[in-house]
Amino acid sequence: MNEETTIDTQELGEKIVKVLKTIYDPEIPVDIYELGLIYDVFVNEEYEVKILMTLTSPNCPVAETLPVEVEEKVKSIDVLKDVEVEITFDPPWTQELMSEEAKLELGLL
């Protein structure tokens, strides 16, 4: 049995979250995961990933580049076969979605 077959989807999910925590919104010094921009991460048995995310606003200056960066960085995890990033504005992002850590970092607590 090789190493690839022993990776479970939960472990893979954690790896994906680690990668997401390296991506920052250029306007806010907090990573996109802590900001609450990642709504969901789906991983199936075929090692295909779908990430449902939002942006701080529909007019976000990185609307074109951020999803591409997310896709490319997550694709860097070797075992993944496919990564799809879907942007949604339902529900719209609000500061309530930020983690306590992010709120603290931005002086909102």
Task: Describe the model.
InterPro entries: Fe-S_Maturation_MIP18, FSCA_dom_sf, MIP18-like. It holds the Pfam family FeS_assembly_P. Residues 14-87 form the MIP18 family-like domain. This is MIP18 family-like domain-containing protein. The chain is α+β, with helices and mostly antiparallel strands and 109 residues long. The protein contains three helices and three strands. The protein has one domain (3-90): GMP Synthetase, Chain A, domain 3 (2-Layer Sandwich), CATH 3.30.300.130. The chain has helices at residues 9-20, 66-75, 100-105, and strands at 38-43, 48-53, 82-87. Strands 1-2-3 form a three-stranded mixed β-sheet, covered by helices on one side. 22% of the residues are buried.
CATH H-level homologous superfamily name: Fe-S cluster assembly (FSCA)
Rounded radius of gyration (Å): 15 Å
- Which residues sit in consecutive blocks of at least 5 with pLDDT less than 50? none
The secondary-structure element order is HEEHEH
Please indicate the percent range of residues in DSSP E strands (runs of 2 or more): 15-25%
Domain MIP18 family-like: 14-87
Protein name: MIP18 family-like domain-containing protein
Organism: Allomuricauda ruestringensis (strain DSM 13258 / CIP 107369 / LMG 19739 / B1)
InterPro entries: Fe-S_Maturation_MIP18 (IPR052339), FSCA_dom_sf (IPR034904), MIP18-like (IPR002744)
Compact summary:
26% of the residues lie in helices and 17% in strands.
SSE layout:
Blueprint: H1 9-20, E1 38-43, E2 48-53, H2 66-75, E3 82-87, H3 100-105
List the keywords.
Fe-S_Maturation_MIP18; 3 helices; GMP Synthetase, Chain A, domain 3; 26% helix; 109 residues; FSCA_dom_sf; alpha+beta; MIP18 family-like domain-containing protein; single chain; MIP18-like; 3-stranded mixed beta sheet
